[in-house]
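Example record

One chain of 95 residues, shown exactly as stored in the release files.
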Amino acid sequence: MARGNTVWARVYYRNTTGEELRSVLTLMGPGGRTVELHCASAAHDEPGTCETPRVHSSGRPGSATAIAEFMGAGPVEEAPLLLRAGSERAPGARD
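Predicted structure tokens for this chain:
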């Protein structure tokens, strides 16, 4: 998401697995700057959100990318990746 020179990432989710999930929301901006946020997705069927802090971007509009990953609970090495979703500029979009 962007407003002026401020960018942030937000993911909306609904956990219907009946188990707690781990999620990571990553915002990657120009110049290699990255903000990563770990969110807990409770084991209930209620909608939720996870949002990174808002940061200043000196890049052109639309130059930031966000990735949301949801994985199962348990040891990191053994937790299955359930979903990876990312943002990217629409083809042909203008600045």
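Notes: The beta strands are 2-3, 6-7, 10-14, 21-28, 34-41, 47-51, 55-56, 65-71, 81-86.
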